[in-house]
Design brief:
By secondary structure, this protein is mainly alpha-helical. The protein contains two helices and no strands.
């Protein structure tokens, strides 16, 4: 094979490689391309996703506020319970003292 034949063979191989690359590029873009109908569907889905995220954020905020309110209410209830238990303890102690006083008075 002389130099001219080598150059022609190389040119043919490069042209075939270029043609195959161009065809693959065209085929990929042809199948990957998004149509107008698909774009409107994607826009609708994006809007729905945005709305859902806003609703999720609102729900999280609501539940955080509600949790805060419930925590405060629980703390108040526990404080009231503690005060009631302390008052009951004092009342029992006073009742015991009164019983002891009455028993001493009856014993005399």
């Amino acid at each position: 094979m002389n130099g001219l034949e080598l150059k022609i063979a190389t040119a043919i191989v490069l042209f075939i490689a270029f043609s195959m690359g161009w065809f693959v590029h065209w085929a990929v873009h042809r199948f990957v391309r998004v149509g107008d109908g698909d774009m409107s569907d994607l826009d609708t889905m994006a809007q729905q996703m945005h709305d859902a995220e806003e609703q999720r954020d609102e729900a999280i905020t609501y539940y955080q506020q509600r949790e805060s309110e419930m925590t405060n209410q629980q703390a108040q209830t526990e404080a009231e319970l503690k005060a009631a238990m302390e008052g009951l303890r004092e009342a029992r102690h006073e009742a015991e003292e009164l019983r002891a006083y009455i028993e001493r008075q009856n014993a005399e």
